[in-house]
Amino acid sequence: MIDSHCHLADEAFAADLEAVVDRARAAAVERTLVILAAGDESEAAQAARLDRLWPETRFAIGVHPQQAHQFAADPDRSADVVRAQIASTPSARAIGEIGLDYHYDFSPKDVQQRVFRAQVALARELALPVVIHTREADDDTVAILREQGGGVAGVLHCFTGGAPLRRAGLDLGFYLSFAGIVTFPKAAELRETARGVPFDRLLTETDSPFLAPVPHRGHRNEPAHVSLVVAALAALHAMPAQELADRTSANFRALFRP
Asked: Does domain 2-256 have CATH number 2.30.30.30?
């Protein structure tokens, strides 16, 4: 199975990264897609360490909407920073996570949108998929992808939307990725939404160190726990977990070409 979205370069894993990797491998996790914040030297250093520990790891690099304010004076420069880091990261396979987040006010909406557009344009230029973060901004996120993303493939990561966002994502040709939230007792509506995603558009992730699934909720998440997400989604479809893991792994390879 594959963890299609995690933050193993986060400082939360600095002290025991090798043990985390060992547990993931022991849980039959084939590889991960690790998200890197563009221009973050600490994350880049830990990514280099991770590359040595787990060569199958692949990376996505982008400016998160919460950091978009750093490029308020020149939003197009965000794409230049991402381009340069991708060029120096042989295992990079995607641009992300990028998008819009209106829940917090770290970055003005107009700046987020301009930085998002610049990175979608870069993805089109480099023929790379995008990893999309959208929070309380679904209409604007979808509108920008429709306007700017012609020919760009991607995934709506940590999907928590309803049927309208599911349909919009599928209409864009995107994959939908589910994290540990699908195991939460109060997530019945999300599980119903997940049930309606075609098998050839489904991905699994942890978003670790965040959103640990039941029974690890409240603790640090890690890639080994993607098995619990796989099991939850497999139960929705009354199929063996291994079959769902095989299908989602094939989807990962189709999108990110690792």
From this structure: no
